[in-house]
Write a structure and sequence with these properties.
This protein is an alpha+beta fold. It is built from 5 helices and 6 strands. 13% of the residues are buried.
Length: 151
């Protein structure tokens, strides 16, 4: 870390603690050259994720869209909202960990379905019907048959 007073590159950390916002770490440093102290803040860098929609348009990732889509699938079903929040967080973390900056809505839909399947059968089928855009009863029945075979 470069000293703001003398420009020397060598410093040592004297004290570390979480900042008041809880998002960053506050570090007190001492320059090895001039012995003056200064404060730095360390935060996790998150790069924006771009979602590529089916029509080719792009928009920023919004985890609230995942939660609201799952809420629609659980309409009139018992669900703990913290489970849906946990799923959205898992999906967001998975995407962040891939280090890819673009992801398709198809891939996000697959990740949601993977996590809904063990949670609630009806919500899984409801979400699948929207995600796969079923046009008729036959395609709906194929998805149910596929689900039952995998079970």
């Amino acid at each position: 870390m470069k000293c703001p007073f003398c420009g020397d590159q060598e410093s040592k950390v004297v004290d570390s603690r979480h900042s008041e916002d809880g998002v960053s770490i506050r570090r007190r440093r001492e320059c090895m050259n001039c012995q003056r102290r200064f404060t730095t803040y360390e935060i996790v860098e998150t790069l924006p994720i771009i979602v590529v929609k089916r029509d080719g348009s792009r928009q920023n990732f919004d985890r609230n869209k995942i939660v609201s889509a799952m809420m629609r699938a659980f309409d009139k079903r018992k669900v703990d909202v913290s489970d849906l929040d946990r799923i959205a967080t898992e999906i967001e973390q998975t995407i962040q960990n891939t280090l890819e900056r673009e992801i398709s809505t198809d891939r996000i839909g697959e990740m949601v379905m993977e996590r809904l399947k063990p949670l609630d059968e009806v919500a899984y089928i409801r979400f699948a019907s929207i995600y796969h855009r079923f046009q008729d009863a036959q395609s709906f029945m194929r998805e149910i048959s596929k689900y039952l075979e995998e079970k």
